[in-house]
Amino acid sequence: MTFQDLIAYKKAFALAMKIFEISKSFPSEEKYSLTDQIRRSSRSVPANIAEAYRKRIFPKHFHSKLTDCDAENSETQVWIEFCYQCKYISYEIYSELIIETDEIGKLLNYMILNPSKFGVNEN
Question: Which whole-number Å values give the CA distances from 46 to 20, 29, 96, in the listed order?
Answer without folding.
Answer: 14, 27, 19
